[in-house]
């Protein structure tokens, strides 16, 4: 069964500090992993996906198949990064995404 | 830009009432989804549809049904609303590469 675990409900950091939002998954095949973000009073939107290997708003995430993880990282957090972050998994060939429970990131000045 | 529009942002209903949540997308996507979003539980899939008149149960379909009569429209129906269905409901449509486009959400309160 597919499962996505985000162990932290809340992550609170100061501006300029490094950030790592944890995501672990369980899936026996080749998954596609995503990070979605929801800023206050905005709709949920895609932040990045593992296959594109790009940095969005300074965030990166590397798929580690050995540790079945897809942690989201940013070296220097900004106040505007405060939001709800969801990790999601899609099994190859299927349309539906399975989401984790989400981590609220709070960046204080 | 893809647009997914949910007709009702806020609804208050009474226990036992029938509730319709409407969702329309304007990008000709074949796949559409209904999730509910609850604090601490994340997003849970209720139903999805991969074509007109086709539907599949998600992880929590009990108490819900859906309708997809036209490609652009996907409706979620609560036949008899209950207080445990108080939640934020998110509609999404799917673009082939894996990106889901979400609506703004419909916050339903059942009294």
What is the makeup of the main sheet of chain A?
6 strands, mixed
Distance between the termini of chain B: 37 Å
β-strand percent of chain A reads over 45%
Which oligomerization state do the chains in this entry correspond to? heterodimer
The greatest interface here is:
A-B, 21 and 23 residues
CATH class of chain B: Mainly Beta
Q: Tell me the fraction of residues in β-strands of chain B, as a range.
A: over 45%
Helix content of chain A: under 10%
Q: Main β-sheet of chain B: number of strands, strand sense, barrel status?
A: 7 strands, mixed
Named CATH topology of chain B:
Immunoglobulin-like
Identify the CATH class of chain A.
Answer: Mainly Beta
Uncertain residue segments of chain A: none
Rg for CA atoms of chain B = 13 Å
Structural write-up:
The complex is a heterodimer of chains A (109) and B (111). Chain A is an all-beta fold. In chain A, 0% of the residues lie in helices and 46% in strands. Chain A contains no helices and eleven strands. The termini of chain A are far apart. The model of chain A has no long low-confidence stretch (mean pLDDT 91). Chain B has one domain (4-110): Immunoglobulins (Immunoglobulin-like), CATH 2.60.40. Chain B is built from no helices and twelve strands. In chain B, strands 2, 5, 6, 7, 10, 11 and 12 form a seven-stranded mixed sheet that branches. In chain B, strands 3-9-8 form a three-stranded antiparallel sheet, with no helix packed on it. Chain B starts with a strand and ends with a strand. The model of chain B has no long low-confidence stretch (mean pLDDT 93). Chains A and B meet through strand 5, strand 6 and strand 10 of A and strand 5, strand 6 and strand 10 of B.
